[in-house]
Amino acid sequence: MPVRLIATDLDGTLLRPDLSVSTRTRAALDAARAAGIGVVPVTARQPRGLRLIAGAAGFTEWALCGNGAHGLHLDTGETLFEAHVQEDVQRALARLMTERVPGVLFVSVRQGGEVFVAQAGYADLAHFEDHKRHPHEMGNFSLEEVVAQPSLKFIVRHPQLTPRELLSQVQALELPGFAVTHSGAPFLEVLAQGVSKAWGLERLCAHLGVDRSEVLAFGDAPNDAEMLAWAGRGVAMAHAEPEAKAAADELTLTNEEDGVAVVIERLLGLD
User: Sheet harboring 79-82: ordered strands across?
Assistant: First the structure.
């Protein structure tokens, strides 16, 4: 099957370590688009974070944000789908995790990713790079306010524990109603049940009439694993986390070495 769609993670994959799009990578993306291949960013970022680099990468069409929970068209603003973590699920998770892991803090990302409702104390832990949002914009809300409305993404963070350590604590609760992953950022990302980058990509491909065998996907982190396994051809970066490498069909060079561009150039016969 020929490749009709390229689905790529951004941070740690398409972007250089300084979060730039290299000249080589932009040229490869443009060559793919010129060949009639769709290029879709599939990212944990919300739309406002994606727009910071969209111009440099030439992204103007469909995008998947929030780890696949939110499908939207960057040019028209059309929303294809949104999947939310419900209030009762958030409330149960927050209550049990607060009892189990003192010091844990939560954030609700709402309304197309534009509204960020952070529990009091969260902004003190955060940096702009974490959410592509300045800490002073994050708010200072009670936990009840944080869980009061559904979330595109429900964030779980602890001042000392790593995401992997937090993940084991969440899994030990054996609660239903949500999916949980992490992307290399210092927090867990809770999504609606069944949601992943693969979930969102499957829905976008159905909308576009693209078969999974026609998808080339790139990623580096645990939240990319389902997408790499789902795609007809999944490519992990050389520095990828074990989950991504295990799910992929092959490895490419690191993001610092333009590993995505290398694969696209070979695909198009440009190497």
Answer: 62-65, 70-73, 79-82
| Residues near 48 by beta carbon (within 8 Å), at least 6 away in sequence | 113, 114, 132, 133
Q: Which sign does the torsion angle of CA 222, 227, 231, 237 carry?
A: negative
Give this prediction's pTM. 0.94
Task: Give the sign of the dihedral formed by CA 163, CA 169, CA 171, CA 173.
Answer: negative
Domain with CATH 3.40.50.1000 in the chain: 5-82+196-268
87-192: CATH topology is 3.30.1240
Please list the residue range(s) of the chain that carry CATH number 3.30.1240.10: 87-192
Q: What is 5-82+196-268's CATH number? A: 3.40.50.1000
44 or 127, greater pLDDT: 44
The per-residue pLDDT for range 185-214, each reduced to its tens digit, is: 899 999 999 999 999 999 999 999 999 999
Give phi and psi for 41, each to the nearest 5.
-75, 135
What single string gives the DSSP state of each residue in 98-112?
Answer: HHHSTT-EEEEEEGG
Mean pLDDT of 142-156: 96
Query: What pLDDT does residue 152 have?
Result: 96
**Please, where are the H alpha helices in the chain?**
23-34, 47-57, 87-100, 128-131, 143-146, 163-173, 197-208, 225-230, 242-247, 259-268
Sign of the dihedral through C-alpha 19, 239, 74, 269: positive
Q: How many residues are recorded in the chain?
A: 271
CA distance 47 to 21: 17
